[in-house]
Amino acid sequence: MIEVNNLHKSFIDKKDKKNTVKALDGLSFTARDGEITGILGPNGAGKTTCLRTLYGLLSADEGFATIDGISVTEDPLGARSKLGIFPDKFGLYERLTAYEQIDYFASLHGMTGKSKKEAIEQVIQDLELGDLAHRKTVGFSQGQRMKVTLAQSLVHQPQNFVLDEPTRGLDVMSTRILRNHLAKFKAKGHCILFSSHVMQEVAALCDRVIIVANGKLAAQGTPQELCDLAGETHLEEAFVKLIGSDEGVAA
Amino acid sequence: MNQLKALVLKEYREAFRDKRALMVALMMAFMAPIMIMVMSKIMIEKLVDEPPIYIKFTGAEYAPKLILHLAEKNLLNFVDVPEGDRVAWEQRNITVKIPEDYATNMAQGKSIKLHLQADFTDKAVKPPIRRINSAVREFSLSIGYKRLLLRGVDIRLLNPVKLVEQDTAKPDATFMLISMMLGIYLMLAAFMSGLSVAIDSSAGERERNVLEMLLCQPVSTLKIVLAKLIGASTIAFIGVVLVLVLTSLSVGFVDLTKIGATFSLDMSTAIFLMLLLLPICFLASACQLFVAFQTKSFKEAQSTVGMLIGIPAFIPFVVSMMDDRPEWLDWLPISGQSMIIESVFKGVEVNWLAVGATSTVTIVLTVALVLGLAKKLKSEKVVMALS
């Protein structure tokens, strides 16, 4: 379970105090186990800042974030060990093979020996990476890179899984593999937090949707509830309406 | 421990698979023995033979005996210069003027003035001038002695005091320059070889967006820094070992006995030097990582860290030039080691206290840099620089 409570974060420009950016302004939400929670928000709404705070890379000015009850500021390593991360910007170690790369992240999560080997084989099979596993990642296509990154963040079977726009650049087949995979994780009772700009995907996949605007929670609920709230039939229309009128409908 | 093992394994894999960067990194090590060989060959040539010197004579026809005497000493007329050397000797432009009245003055026993003209500040001109000088003096003295002998004077009267020179310099001392160069080379190899790996694993990884992912993992920044340090300093150490091995091999091809010098890098000396330079390898990589992580881009890291290399080349030079060395130089990293290397090559007893002190200071400094960097990697500033 991922819980974010009243997060505040400002980026202060030391030279020009007026240039201060308020990225998070009291954001709170909860992503429950056994559910896929989607985060929606326009560019610059504070999604990435929120997720970085969750990873323990940034420390909030106010408020706290916990992962399975572990505070990310007090025990960042403990919190991170419960987390699988698919970051906003990712790169691969281009001189390693896909297998070595996944192995590396599995080892970082403390896996060893036979159980590690089995976990790697499993994730490679699940994501249909078999043909690529022993090639160096240097010439991989965008989709192939995505898959390797997914594999490395899933290999340790994290209880909580955070994905920052995981489907950008994926072809239809790969997107379906990913969706099936996430659904499987959900069925096993994992907590999945998922940010995306593709409304159909969010509508199809997410149990609950959180809409973030200006560093605040603008609205939350099931996709249907959000549509009802905005009085629209499509999530996209509802989203535009909800972020546009943040005083009106904000929770 | 498993985490650290995985981190180090990954650093090694990346470092050793980047063949081109690795070649460039170890270039230094391959260049050193070649440079030292060429240098010693040149030195031997200079010290052993008296190469021909070509002088522009004016009035050579007035003093055939003098010209003959000079020719015996390999001081030849510019007219006979081989085509290949013409430009060089044209530039040096050494002229000797023999006056018209040479023969008459000689016959009358009057003093004769020869004029030697050259740019005396030119380094290449100095040895020829010295040789011309002594040849002319010898010629002049031999005539003077003959004159006195003819008059029945014992020529020993001319030399009431005679200075006998005894050279106590060890044969090795003539080879000092080359061993000093090797010392500087070793220091440079420690700093240069790990350079590209250090930059690639810090600023390079940040630019390739893999650092953020790594920082999100449940692994302490200290372990990350340690793994990168081990990766880079291993390459640096390989550079040092290569310089030592290749030099000891290549020096065998140069016949140093010609100049009465011996230079041997025996096993125990080589191992001592490796152990002495091991902390330097760590310090060098720690400095490079520390600087590279602070920079904003890969390019900036390359140029800033490149400047760091000046230090190890500069310090041993300055230290070797100094006449009065303050004691604290013994204790500092780099200067301490370079003085110890110097005494190893000189064959002087090694000051073990200084070895211990400088190694300790080097290690302490490295540890401080590593801890500082581990702390810095936790700060928001580094994270903000990611995007």
List the helices and strands and how they pair.
The complex is a heterodimer of chains A (251) and B (387).
Chain A lengths: L1 E10 L9 E11 L4 E5 L6 H9 L6 E6 L2 E2 L4 H5 L2 E4 L11 H11 L4 H14 L15 H13 L5 E5 L7 H16 L3 E5 L3 H7 L2 E6 L2 E6 L1 H8 L4 H10 L1 H4 L2
Parallel strand pairs in A: 3-8, 3-9, 6-7, 7-8
Antiparallel strand pairs in A: 1-2, 1-4, 4-5, 9-10
Helix pairs in contact in A: 3-4, 3-5, 8-9
Chain B lengths: L1 H16 L1 H30 L4 E6 L5 H9 L2 E3 L8 H7 L2 E3 L4 H7 L6 E3 L8 H25 L25 H17 L2 H13 L3 H5 L5 H31 L15 H28 L3 H11 L1 H12 L13 H12 L5 H27 L1 H5 L3
Parallel strand pairs in B: 1-2, 1-3
Antiparallel strand pairs in B: 3-4
Helix pairs in contact in B: 1-10, 2-7, 2-10, 7-10, 7-11, 7-13, 7-14, 8-10, 8-11, 8-12, 10-11, 10-15, 11-12, 11-15, 13-14
Question: How would you describe what is shown here?
Answer:
The complex is a heterodimer of chains A (251) and B (387). By secondary structure, chain A is α/β, with parallel strands linked by helices. Chain A folds into two domains: 2-82 and 158-249, P-loop containing nucleotide triphosphate hydrolases (Rossmann fold), CATH 3.40.50.300; 92-157, no CATH class. Chain A has helices at residues 47-55, 76-80, 98-108, 113-126, 142-154, 172-187, 199-205, 223-230, 235-244, 246-249; strands spanning 2-11, 21-31, 36-40, 62-67, 70-71, 83-86, 160-164, 191-195, 208-213, 216-221. In chain A, the strands form two sheets. A six-stranded mixed beta sheet of chain A has the order 6-7-8-3-9-10, with helices on both faces. A four-stranded antiparallel beta sheet of chain A has the order 2-1-4-5. In chain A, α3 (98-108) crosses α4, α3 (98-108) packs parallel to α5 and α8 crosses α9. The two termini of chain A are 21 Å apart. Residues 246-251 of chain A have low confidence and may be disordered. With 387 residues, chain B is mainly α. Chain B has helices at residues 2-17, 19-48, 64-72, 86-92, 102-108, 126-150, 176-192, 195-207, 211-215, 221-251, 267-294, 298-308, 310-321, 335-346, 352-378, 380-384; strands at residues 53-58, 75-77, 95-97, 115-117. A four-stranded mixed beta sheet of chain B has the order 2-1-3-4. Chain B is elongated. The mean pLDDT of chain B is 84. Chains A and B meet through α1, α2 and α3 of A and α1, α9 and α16 of B.
